[in-house]
Design a protein that fits this description.
single chain, alpha+beta, TBP-like, 2 domains, 7-stranded antiparallel beta sheet, two-stranded antiparallel sheet, 10 helices, 9 strands
Amino acid sequence: MTEAGDFFLLRQQGAAEGQRQESGIHVFTWRVWPWMSWLLPVLFVGHGFFGGGGWETLFLLLISPILVPAAGLLGSLPRFVLRRAGSTAVPAPITWVLFVHWWSWIVASMSMRGATDAAPTPSMMQGLAGGQLSSGYSDTLFIGGLVVVLVSWVAIVVLALARGRLRQSRRWTVIAWVAAFAAPLLIAGLVVGGCALSQQQADAAGETHAHATALPLEEQTARLEQRYEASQRMLAEVRALIAKDGWRVDAKEIDDLHGCTDTLWDCYRFQLGFRAEPTGDFDLEESMPALRDLGWRVSRDAGAVGIVRLRGEGPHGEVLSISQHTDDGAVEVSLYTGFWWDEAHDGAASAISIDGLVDDDRFAADEWPSLAD
């Protein structure tokens, strides 16, 4: 009678232990597993409908009849293995890996930027961060999310196949709860940290966004005028190597940009251009040593038929382009400056413009159009 009682007590204890192992978070995870295996790939494909969509969304939609079923079936494969082995709940050592896997899907979906003909569109995560998260950081989160998705899936498969060797303990349940709630907090922390790092991006003057936009508008405007004059002097040195006079303005723009560099903050840069027809036998390629003496890193650039083109890079992000037409010898020079931060929505670049010109205006090499308020 005593032995029978002990046997019955052991069975009750084993059943209770098994019920504890197959209760709570492990049972919940087991039940939502099929839904997550299919819904998360759908979110990945359709992320562009929630923001940041571009050509990549169209591409993902086109391959979605293959991508979504493949991802859904692969995501459900470990559960199928466990179910064939008689499981009715996720083994405790696997539960926390599943949460990491699922949250990584979300990170990859929200940090994917859109591809367009002009420029990449911001990701959902950049939009939620108010444009303060850099594109480079968002791309890092996207790649990292995809890597964790793959690695965690492999780990889940291996653990499912090794189910019989897994040790069930309450410690795994605690880890599962931590993973369920700590993962989104970790993601939020990464976003906040990314915004802080993005704030440290410097413009062509070496200033951070916060410092540059804290200046009064009058001082920002004065700085714009000084930078315009300095940029024109830089280009005038190049023009003087080609022709002393007869320069016609070919481009005169202040680009007031939104989404400058890696962030969505406003900034501006100058696009300056001139055209002249040099007298005598001017050879553009022979001017490369003189351009290097001026501090430009010059190289031969691919040009169209009948055009010789040089490209130069300056010390602060400036890009110089010089083209010579072989038929008439005309030379076009253009300069794209680096960027400078501008106060959002009411910046200095919107308060000033380049003076109006007529087609007959000609300038000497050391002259250029002035700015007008």
